Each structure stands twice: as C-alpha cells, then as structure tokens.
C-alpha cells in the first residue's frame, strides 16, 4: 500500500476503526476479548477500505450504491429535454436548460476567435476549467510505414506534448477521442440508382457510373476529436478583465492560446481539420447520444438542442437515450474505464485490435492526459523509483520476486526517459459502446472486451454510474482527477 493516496472517506473509516478498536480495548476486560474486539473492529474497517471486492473495494461500492439509490429516488436518472418549450429571448439568445445527468452542470458557452475560425469554449465552474475541441487527422497510412518512420512520428508526437507542457502556455490537459461509426459502403450506389434519371443522356449516365466505381468508400467513419483543457486561474481572469466584458476577455485570451496550439499541431504530424464551434460541438454531442444524427449535420444545432430528447439511466448496467426523431427502440450505451494498461512492452500499434479490427460496432475511446512539466515529472518519477526500490526485499539469501524486479526496471527507465526528453503525463482511458438494442449491446460489449484483451488492456464496466462515465467520453476534458484532489 506504499505510495497509495487514500481519499478522505477512506482515511475516516480507517481512523474510526482504529479508534473504535482502542475504545473496546479500554472498555472490555480480558486479554483475549480485547484482542478479538480490536481485531474485529479494526480489521473490518481495513477490509472495507483496502481489500479488493468485486473489482473495487466494499467502501467504494457502498458509496456508488448509495448515490445510485439516491438518484433513483429523486428522479435525476430520468432526463427529459425542455428544448421545445424553452423558447428564445427577444434578441435571439437561447434560454439555458438543464443538461443530462453526468454532464458538468452550469456550463457557460463562450465563442472564441482564432485565425482558423470560431471555436466554442465551455467554462465549467465546478471543475474550474475551460474546454474547447478541434477535429484533427493523423497520418492515414501509418500502418504501412517502416519502423524507423513510425518511431520518428512518435518522437514528433512526444515533442508536441513536451512543448505544450513546458512552453509556458495555459493548456494543461488534452483529451483524445476516437469515434468510430459503421457506415454502409453501398449506400451511395443505392441512392444513385434510386435517383437515376432514365431520360438522361447516355454519355452522362456512363460518366456518373464510372465515377461511382472509382470512388473509394470505407465501411467506417472515423473521427479524432481533441479537447483542450485550460485551468481557470486568477491570472487568466486578470487578463480577461482588461476587456469590456469578462466573456469578451475570455474569448480573446483563450483564442490566442488555442490558436497557438493549433499552429503547433503540424510539429506533431497532425493535421487540423476544423474547429468545433457551437453548432459543430452541439452536433457532435447530440450524435454521441443518438448515432443516427450525423456528426456534420449542424442544422438547428446549438447549446440547447445539443442534448437528447430523453435519457434513462435508471438501469444499473446501461443507459438509454432517445432523440426527437429516432425509433422507439432508441440507443443503448455502456461505458468502461481502462483498469489496466499494458504491463509488458508493446508495439506502436498495440491498440489496433480495438480501433482498427473491430467491425460493425459504434465505439468511442477517450484518453485524457494531464501534461506534467519536465521538472515535476522527473520529481514524481524519482519518487516512484524510490518507492519501488524501498519495497524490494533484498535480504541475504532471499530470492527477489521477478515481478518486483520488472517494476523497478520500469520505474528507473521512466525516470531516464523523462530526463532524455520524453513528455511527462498522467492519463486515464474510457471506452463507450453504443448499440440499437440491449441484446446487441451485450454482444458488442463482449466484442470490445475481447479486443481490448488482445491490446493488453483490462476494462471494468461502470455499472450504476454509466451516465457519469459516458460523459467522460464527451469532449469535456473529464475522466481524470486534478492533481491534489
């Protein structure tokens, strides 16, 4: 347990168990009775706090179950959008409405200006952070490159992370969201056949037929969304106050930082596709709850229409979302967190079984990174290495556990890599699976579990809190606690 940070409730239970055991020792008589009483009380609290129980601990499951039952009683897990009856102000502004459960509350939408167009910036007051999202594109033929070229791209990517962390900018969190949606590769052909004009000239008909045969159509629509997290600080507020209004100040100040980051994407071998302005971000959010709504369909999309018509998170093992025009069957979603990353060395394409080889499954994989400055990263790596070496049992004649040796080598290697210029990050991963029915959802969840196993990952489904976990795969920069919290 060395090096583990206990949360406040865990510290309270452990402390109460120890104090309660001491009180029983003071109140009871008889050595055996005192020992038994202390062992039962202190041991029970330690077991509830530290011992594994259904993949977590009993205390964590107790808190999850308590919160889940409370939300069930007050009806918070059944959401119905008030967009149709919210109306508008006389100047055209939309009236804010409640957001679905799990989504950060009281968000303020601010439109920031950059040289690449407008971008929607969300102020999350409870998280004390601003977030914005851009769509990027990596190299398409990455898999066909040789090893040296792949490693060069990885070094360029590390350089992007390191320069962002140490460059003095305000961006401190990155969230990468890979969205994969199956498509129908023959839809274009069928649509062209249905709309074909029998009276069209033969040369035009032949030319269009040749065009259809030459157009390459993929079976999946793959999007890579990058959410940027900027902490809400007093320095930022002071700079924003120099303008007429705070909103204007935030828009200009944040726009400069976002624009600077977008310009640096080329150094990481990433291509900037577009900024997600209010309409584009709202369309993506609506699509996440209702995949039948296409991502690029921004007609009528804004901060009010971004949310689904209905969200039912009362089921313990999945949530159901419905849009205004979707079928009565709606969409079912499950979200899991990446419980374990690969413990052995892996190749560059270790996520290919999940992101490339899975067919006909709607998934979102989110990886949230906190960028750590180099000096701080080296300090933390040295502390981890000291912790690993300190736990090693190196008594004379004692054979050292090979797993401990591997952990020691990994911690020392991490410390050396950071000193050599590698980026320091803290990360967390989340995977959401969406299907058209509960039966298909169970099948697709098993498919994803098998895929991540081949990738060297382990998942744990977030039962009784899927509404919260689902929001961690939306471009809000969530899914990772801030340092010190």
Q: How would you characterize this protein structure?
A:
With about 475 residues, the protein is an alpha+beta fold. It contains 15 helices and 15 strands. The protein folds into 3 domains: about 1-80, no CATH class; about 100-185 and about 225-470, no CATH class; about 185-215, no CATH class. Helices cover about 40% and strands about 20% of the residues. The strands form 2 sheets. Strands 3, 4, 5, 6, 7, 8, 9, 10, 11, 12, 13, 14 and 15 form a 13-stranded antiparallel β-sheet that branches. It has a two-stranded antiparallel sheet with strand order 1-2. The mean pLDDT is about 85.
Gyration radius (Cα, Å) is: 26 Å
Number of strands: 15
Domain tally? 3
Distance separating the two termini: 19 Å
As a percent range, the share of helical residues equals: 40-55%
The coarse silhouette is globular
Low-pLDDT runs of 5+ residues are: none
Encode the helix/strand succession as letters: HHEEHEHEEEHEHHEHHEHEEEHEHHEHEH
Number of helices, counting only DSSP H or I runs of 4 residues or more: 15
* Proportion of residues in extended strands: 15-25%
Structural class: alpha+beta
For the sheet with most strands, the description reads: 13 strands, antiparallel
What's the overall average pLDDT, rounded?
84
Keywords: Membrane, Transmembrane, Transmembrane helix
InterPro entries: SCO6880-like (IPR049978)
Question: What is the structure about, briefly put?
Answer:
The protein has helices spanning 8-27, 31-50, 58-74, 83-86, 147-166, 187-194, 202-214, 234-240, 246-264, 278-289, 352-355, 374-391, 402-419, 438-454, 466-471, and strands at residues 52-53, 56-57, 78-80, 108-114, 117-124, 129-137, 173-182, 220-231, 271-275, 310-312, 319-322, 331-340, 362-372, 424-435, 458-461.
